[in-house]
UniProtKB/TrEMBL annotation:
Taxonomy, superkingdom: Bacteria
Segments forming domain Peptidase M15A C-terminal: 132-213
Record has Protease as a keyword: yes
Name the UniProt record assigns to this protein: Muramoyltetrapeptide carboxypeptidase
Entry-linked SUPFAM superfamilies: Hedgehog/DD-peptidase, PGBD-like
Domain Peptidoglycan binding-like, chain residue ranges per copy: 58-94
Matches recorded under InterPro entries: Peptidase_M15A_C, Peptidoglycan-bd-like, PGBD-like_sf, PGBDSf, Zn_M74/Hedgehog-like
Short name of any one Pfam family annotated for the protein: Peptidase_M15_3
Phylogenetic placement of the source organism: Bacteria, Bacillati, Actinomycetota, Actinomycetes, Kitasatosporales
Entry keyword annotation includes Amino-acid biosynthesis: no
């Protein structure tokens, strides 16, 4: 697995979420590099593994073996030829998962707003950075949804302002205050089943499945946020 860039570098490469269908300008395949590869890596981030594995698709702009494998899993799940080459057909399916406002097909920005009414403001990073973090999270959750048989997902808690996080008893270094975490409930699935799906989706933070929701976050991909270690509270299930 390639090392992830720090937040600043990752944001520079893929910061501005597309406001409409992303304009893929070329066929992408292993060996390519660039900002369009970062965008691809964001969109297939939830296809990091086929079984429980502490790994993720790095947002490093380098189309290597890990990105190829994630693309192949994505292609297979959507009935495409699983060759790892991102041509027009794969690009079309990738674009079908985005909305015109830059969110994704099955998630709205408002679902991730801080519950105290502050939107994406009041966190430990600026609202623009929070929104980009949420966008990247949405694509991982699209993969969870697909792997769960297209079951709907309820976001119990997404971004939290610092004050709201304190009010609900969240840890001071919670990934929620950066917009890289979500507590989810997958329709028709137990929390244990959701945990097992999340183990394949590149999440480096998973709270125990003994709650009525499943906490998911991508802490390892944001080393500047101060929590660079894997945390699967229930281990590998």
């Amino acid at each position: 697995m390639a090392a992830a860039f720090g937040l600043a570098a990752a944001t520079d490469l893929g910061s501005a979420g597309p406001a409409s269908a992303y304009g893929w300008s070329r066929t992408l395949q292993q060996g390519n590099s660039g900002s369009d590869v970062v965008e691809l890596q964001i969109r297939v981030g939830g296809w990091a593994a086929s079984t429980a594995q502490q790994t993720y698709v790095a947002w490093d702009g380098s189309f290597g073996p890990a990105t190829t494998a994630a693309v192949q899993r994505f292609q297979s799940a959507y009935g495409l030829t699983a060759d790892g080459v991102v041509g027009p057909q794969t690009q079309s399916v990738l674009n079908s998962l985005e909305s015109s406002d830059g969110s994704t097909a099955h998630f709205d920005w408002s679902e991730f707003y801080s519950a105290d009414g502050s939107g994406f403001s009041g966190g430990k990073v600026g609202s623009t950075e929070v929104k980009e973090n949420v966008r990247r999270l949405m694509y991982k959750l699209e993969a969870v949804r697909k792997k769960a048989g297209n079951s709907s997902i309820t976001i119990n808690s997404g971004f939290r302002s610092v004050s709201h996080n304190a009010a609900v008893g969240g840890a001071s270094n919670s990934m929620h205050v950066y917009g890289v975490a979500a507590d989810i409930v997958v329709s028709g699935h137990t929390t244990l089943q959701t945990y097992r799906i999340a183990e394949t989706c590149g999440f480096s933070g998973l709270e125990a499945y003994t709650h009525s929701w499943q906490h998911t976050d991508s802490r390892v991909q944001y080393p500047s946020y101060g929590s660079g270690s894997w945390w699967w509270e229930s281990g590998v299930v």
